[in-house]
Amino acid sequence: xxxxxxxxxxxxxxxxxxxxxxxxxxxxxxxxxxxxxxxxxxxxxxxxxxxxxxxxxxxxxxxxxxxxxxxxxxxxxxxxxxxxxxxxxxxxxxxxxxxxxxxxxxxxxxxxxxxxxxxxxxxxxxxxxxxxxxx
Length: 135
Hints:
Layout: H1 14-39, H2 64-72, H3 79-99, H4 111-133
């Protein structure tokens, strides 16, 4: 007995057809990056001045949220935003698939998960912006 063919979905052979399309896409992205670096090079900036005492070191943008949280808490509690909060956040991300085992994929049918995701994202964005601009 022959398996039924599903004509509603067009299938493509992975090798060589799909892999060729992906290789072309990667080549286009690579050429765009090379063109950007050739035509718009980024300078190194001013040379370091060891006699300048007004320099305030700041972390990169992806560490600005914990940096801002370090400013909010007293120094005796700095272990909370520096160590405990990232560890709890990572642990929460690891156990989240077990806590939310709803098989539904539509965001409209998963309101609690979507609200938690939106609030977490807005909090991280807010703390990052505050860490960049409030000093």
